[in-house]
Automatic annotation (TrEMBL):
Species this protein is from: Brumimicrobium glaciale
Subcellular location(s) of the protein: Cell outer membrane
The name this protein goes by in its record: TolC family protein
Coiled coil feature spans: 351-385
Signal peptide extent: 1-25
Pfam family, one: OEP
Gene3D superfamilies, per the entry: Outer membrane efflux proteins (OEP) (1.20.1600.10)
Keywords: Cell outer membrane, Coiled coil, Membrane, Signal, Transmembrane, Transmembrane beta strand, Transport
Length: 441
């Protein structure tokens, strides 16, 4: 008994928790979904890390311009001192004969500070410009990815709203079908209709229920995709605004799309790379250096033990002039120029494609805008005809077939209405993207 009571209590608590989770499901508008995706979407988070990595790489390359200071120290112990050959003529011996001799002490110590200062290095300064161009390219790629995610979130959100509207229509149609079935069964009980009419009404109800089940599955799938794009767990219960509220904007101010900006950034990166190759092909590099330290010599045998230190220092300038490297740089320049030519053509192609997409989106949006009022009027008229047909059927003027046909026309008008809304919203979304206005809030 106690176990049973405990189970009932646990089940009751779970039911209450589930009820409150459902009751307190947050309703998200489109902008809130986009804001959530901007913060939690994993693709955008990866891009942000890549952007930060690119900035750090730029700082690394710029750091090579700074002076470098190194401390060097070493200790050597010679178990056998190196040999040198001494000419015997130095000591009065015959010419052309030598005698080996060991010089030095077994203990050697060195410690010095080395300073290197790059005065001018065309490759270094070219690499700095290249990394800056690469960082700009990464920044635009990051914006492009953000635009794609925002576009996907908006598209999925609109699809979810359309499916929600479709479910609402189907629910209304099911209520009408149930009422129709009830009326038909009543008329049959009064021997005013045959059993076939009841079966038709029942079949229509079953078809609507099946249609609703399919639409509900599609809605759940679309909501899961939306949660994925928002960076939310699939188990989280969220709701969207069911009403489709959109502002009709005739045109947007056309700006450079991110696709065009991305192609321009790639072209600029290639241009900085070829400029660097051209400079390193002819210009010298100049570096200054300086060293200061001490050298120690030690002897550890009795009775002449010692360890003496002696200072040392130098400073200088090093000039490196490229003269000939086997035509390697020239071949690199030719290859890079071909890449630039291809990149320029790619930029023109993207610009033409963008203009084409804008033109098509404007036409699609204009067409949907013009047909919006027409399909709304068609839907109202179909609903009016259906209501009149129901009354005529109750009066025995028309058959059940006429009722079902009228209901079918209502369903068709509803789908056309939703399809027109989808066409308008997607055309507007596409126009925002191609005209460079999608990321503007």
């Amino acid at each position: 008994m106690l176990v049973s009571a405990h189970k009932q209590m646990v089940l009751g608590l779970l039911f209450i928790v589930s009820f409150f989770q459902i009751a307190h499901a947050q309703t998200w508008n489109l902008q809130q979904c986009i804001d959530s995706a901007e913060v939690h979407n994993k693709r955008l988070r990866i891009n942000s890390l890549e952007m930060e990595s690119s900035l750090q790489q730029e700082r690394v390359v710029e750091g090579y311009r700074n002076p470098k200071l190194h401390l060097n120290a070493d200790y050597k112990y010679f178990t056998d001192l190196p040999y040198q050959l001494m000419p015997m003529s130095v000591f009065g011996g015959p010419e052309g004969q030598f005698k080996e001799a060991q010089f030095g002490v077994p203990h050697h110590l060195n410690a010095d500070l080395t300073l290197a200062i790059p005065i001018y290095n065309p490759e270094l300064y070219g690499n700095i410009k290249t990394t800056r161009a690469a960082t700009e390219l990464t920044r635009i790629q990051n914006l492009k990815s953000k635009e794609e995610v925002f576009f996907e979130v908006s598209t999925v959100y609109y699809n979810a709203q359309i499916l929600a509207q479709s479910l609402s229509f189907i629910d209304s149609n099911i209520i009408n079908a149930k009422q129709l079935l009830k009326n038909v069964e009543l008329l049959q009980s009064q021997d005013l209709l045959v059993g076939t009419d009841v079966n038709r009404a029942h079949l229509k109800l079953l078809q609507l229920e099946k249609e609703r089940e399919s639409a509900a599955v599609k809605y759940d799938n679309v909501m899961n995709i939306l949660k994925f794009l928002m960076g939310k767990p699939l188990a989280e219960n969220i709701e969207i605004e069911k009403g489709i509220d959109f502002e009709k904007i005739e045109n947007y101010e056309t700006e450079s799309s991110l696709s065009v900006q991305l192609a321009e950034a790639r072209n600029q990166l290639l241009q900085t790379q070829i400029n660097t190759l051209q400079k390193t092909r002819y210009l010298p590099s100049l570096n200054a250096f300086a060293t200061y330290g001490i050298t120690g010599y030690g002897y550890d045998r009795e009775p002449n033990q010692f360890l003496n230190f002696y200072p040392k220092g130098l400073a200088g300038i090093q000039l490196t002039m490229p003269l000939f490297n086997g035509m390697v740089t020239k071949r690199k320049v030719i290859s890079k120029q071909l890449e630039i030519d291809a990149s320029s053509l790619q930029l023109e192609l993207i610009q033409d494609q963008t203009n084409l997409n804008i033109e098509n989106a404007l036409k699609e949006k204009d067409n949907a805008n013009r047909t919006m009022e027409l399909v709304e009027e068609q839907l109202k008229l179909a609903e009016l005809i259906y209501d009149q047909t129901i009354l005529q059927h109750e009066e025995g003027i028309v058959s059940l077939t006429d009722v079902i046909m009228a209901e079918t026309e209502v369903n068709k008008a509803q789908m056309e209405y939703l399809a027109t809304i989808i066409e308008y919203l997607k055309a507007d979304l596409k126009l925002k993207k191609e005209s460079g206005n999608l990321l503007k809030n």
